[in-house]
Each structure stands twice: as structure tokens, then as C-alpha cells.
Description:
It is built from three helices and no strands. It is elongated. It is mostly helical. Helices cover 58% and strands 0% of the residues.
Amino acid sequence: MALSYKARRRWALVVLLVGLPVYIVVALNLVALIERPSILVEFAIYVGLGIVWILPFKKLFKGIGQADPDAPPDDGPGY
């Protein structure tokens, strides 16, 4: 069953406000386990982890910034 536009917006907000900070802490702890890598290796790890976290949520975030496709059409400013 596909999520409605409103449900996707709410879940996207939960992912950004709760999931992303948790993922950041996990990523920092993961990099801390490695014996002080060079700055380029560390940068590559952070970039890779930054891309990997969004892959499962790609479908959730797609189209969130656009107007609700299920909303009734707006007739304009109504002067």
C-alpha cells in the first residue's frame, strides 16, 4: 500500500528529526573505531555514509517539496 502525500511528509519529518541525528551519532562512532585515518580517507567515509543513509528513504522523500497532488485545485488569489 502506497503512503499518502501527508503521510510521506510526516514520515519524512520523523526521519529528519529523529533518524538523521541517530545516524550521525552512529557514523561518528563508526569512524572513531578506525585508528585516525588520513583526512582524505575520513572525508571519503563521511561522504559515503552520507549517501548511504538516504538510499532506503529515497522513495519517501521524492516529491515532498511539491504541492499536494491530491489537493483540490486553487482558483487563484480571489480578488
